[in-house]
Amino acid sequence: MSKRTSGKSAIIVLVFVALGCAAGAYFFLGNAEVTTPGPSAQAADDPNREMTDEERAEYIKAHVTVTDLKIVPDTKPGLDEVVPGLLRVVGTVSNNGPRPLAKAFLHIFPKDKMGKVLGSHIENLAKKGGAMAPGESREIRFLIPEKKEFAGDFGHDLR
Question: pLDDT tens digits for 119-135?
Fold first, then answer.
C-alpha cells in the first residue's frame, strides 16, 4: 500500500469518526428534554404567578370586599326615565390584599317578597379594566333582567 492510499484511508476514517461523534453528541445532548418548573414549583409568594382556584377563593375571602351593593332600576343615560325590564347592580369592590386579582365573581340572587330566590346572575368584577391591582377599588355597574316578582331584597356571594 502506498503512502498516498494510506493517507486517504486515514482521512476517510477521521471523517467517519467525526460524523459518529457529532451524531452521538446530537443524540445525547440535542434530544435532552428541556423542562421548566410548573406552577407548583414556583415560589408561593410570587405576586406575578396566577393563583389556583383554591388560592383565589382564600384570597378573596381574606382581602376582597364589596360595599354599598344595591339593585336599582336602570335609567336612560342623563335622564331619570326608567328603562323597563332592566335593573342595575351598583356598588364598590376593593382588592385590599398584596396581589393582583384577575377574577372575582359576584353572584347576585334577587328574591321575591317571601324570600324565594328568583334566579342568579354572575359577573366577573375584575374583567373590566384588567386585573385589579393591590389596593385598587372599582365601581360595580352591570345590568340584570328585571323580574316582576322582585321585592328589592337579594343575596350575594363573592367567589
Answer: 999 999 988 788 999 99
Strands (DSSP E) along the chain, which ranges? 64-75, 82-95, 105-110, 121-124, 137-145, 154-158
Whether 120 contacts 109, CB under 8 Å: yes
Instruction: Give the amino acid at 44.
Output: A
Q: In b/e form, how buried is each residue of 132-154, taking b as 16+ CB within 10 angstroms?
A: beeeeebebeeebebeeebeeeb
Task: Read off φ and ψ for residue 101, nearest 5 degrees.
Answer: -130, 115
- pLDDT tens digits, 4-41: 556 666 666 666 666 666 655 565 555 545 555 554 44
What is the reported pLDDT for 80?
A: 87
From residue 107, alpha-carbon distances to 96, 125, 146, 155 in Å are: 20, 10, 16, 8
Give the other-Cβ count within 10 Å of 70's Cβ.
12
Question: Can you list the domains of the chain with their CATH numbers?
Answer: 52-158 (2.60.40)
Q: Residue with C-alpha cell 354572575? A: 122
Grid coordinates representing 10 are 486515514
Helix (H) or strand (E) holding 56: helix 53-63
Burial class for 110, CB neighbours closer than 10 Å (0-12, 13-18, 19+): buried
